[in-house]
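Hi D.,

Good news: the full-assembly prediction came through. Inputs first.
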Amino acid sequence: MFSPLIDELMSSLRCLPGVGPKSAQRMALHLLERDREGASRLAKALAESVDGVSECSRCRTLTEEEFCTICNNHRRLKSLLCVVETPADVLAIEQAGTYKGTYFVLHGHLSPIDGIGPSDLGLDQLQQLLSTGEVEEVIMATNPTIEGEATCHYISERAKKLQVTVSRIAQGVPLGGELEYIDGGTLAHAFSSRQKI
Amino acid sequence: MFSPLIDELMSSLRCLPGVGPKSAQRMALHLLERDREGASRLAKALAESVDGVSECSRCRTLTEEEFCTICNNHRRLKSLLCVVETPADVLAIEQAGTYKGTYFVLHGHLSPIDGIGPSDLGLDQLQQLLSTGEVEEVIMATNPTIEGEATCHYISERAKKLQVTVSRIAQGVPLGGELEYIDGGTLAHAFSSRQKI
Ligand SMILES: [Zn+2]
Ligand SMILES: [Zn+2]
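Then the structure:
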């Protein structure tokens, strides 16, 4: 509509999740009309992140340092290791604010159909970490999906062989959720896993 | 949470309109985990746009060329000039798809309180364009707000002195709008501006 460069800006903004053509237009015009400083800052942050951000050598979460801020924090318990599928899961658990251990990020789950096997999830690295004896308990926090459960099962078996305690985060009805809006699978699980009070 | 570079990426994504802290986190992790190519493309488009995009020499809309694609299109009527406040207004009118003339973009409206006067809106350039005799009718499409009306009035007076026809886009109830949801000012205007059928 305007010119190739502006069209390209609008089109490239659509790589952002949740941004459709209308939002991309609004964003491009906003930046060019009212916030070129912000646009330059964002361009720089994107370029530097793409270049610099890699994985933590211990836990595989995203970081531009050798070790992430969590692994580097001596107040975090290295004896507790929470296994998650993505860095977004780390963020969600950190924001809940009660977990004091460290993490291991798989960057996915086992998926033979997509050709994703143990080595893609860093399971050799996990095995090595568990072999050091540093970790006393592995808390499995993969997603409660078929793939997440299969991945959980695979990892648990390997961890148990190394005499490491393995636990799974509890599944059931979410706090504050109303029963009528909760899916049948979750409800059924909540009933079969009911606890005496 | 993760590292300075990722924090900076999340924070700089918030320069985008409508992006709060949660969306910025989601966007940053999505780009770093799943679309680094998209992130690089966006970084490049942002940097090149900030450097290259300026204003069309005739109509002041955003473009990296001397003249925008609309002014450069010989099928667009140079005798019709639609005055709008922003490039986003140009986009909205173009997407409506019926206007065949050209535009003049003010990049704002008269606002003495904010120190925005005629020269900030390119009104000298507009005066020059109207003096060439190329434009036969100016269609005022500034916003139907107090500032937009004041700006419209100011420009109309100057255009009329140059013997150019001036019109104002119609104001009333929007097509498809339901009367019960339309504000009182619009309804009152629609009644006082009623037309015989
Ligand atoms: Zn780490
Ligand atoms: Zn132009």
